[in-house]
Amino acid sequence: MEFYKDIHKITNPDSLNVLVNKFNQFSEDYIPKDLEKIAPYFNPEGLQLRHDARIAFEDMAYEANKEGIHLRAISTYRSYYYQWKVYLNNITPYISIEEYRKVRDKVSARPGHSEHQTGLAIDINDLEQTFANTPEGKWLTINSFRYGFILRYPKGKEAITGYDYEPWHFRYLGRELAEAVYFSNMVYDQFYSLHLDYNRMR
Asked: Among candidates 112, 47, 43, 42, which has minimal Cα distance to 77?
């Protein structure tokens, strides 16, 4: 599959089920209107999520805390321009942009293609794949869908998502849709194409 080809501009940016990936791109000026700061106990840095996602994350983190599981938000909403900084963070004068993209595209989204611009995506606790083996990583894998979140970039699905395994990256979809995606055993790109892409259903 050739990524970043035949790119479509996203026309439903405020939808909770919006699909943003290497084929669907946000406009430069899109900023969610209902961004709110996460409660300091779960994020002392003042990071923001959209209203429904914020409430769901705080509920999830609160319930997890009762079981001795400690969840913290470490990356949430990012603007188009902030994503440029993230994407270009490791570039040097000694590598061409083409060579850089071959490596960087596996671990970072190009501007406009990041789920973080939705205000519905959240990186939790750690940015290492070993997070999957922690009590928090295991708890999230089993329970996050109950609060409306899905693991967005699972192991073994890299050829579909275009990203390396990210056990820390979760996407809010709402409880009903998150449950449907979880039990489908599909990544969201597949599920969306089969069940939510209304243009293809016509």
From this structure: 47
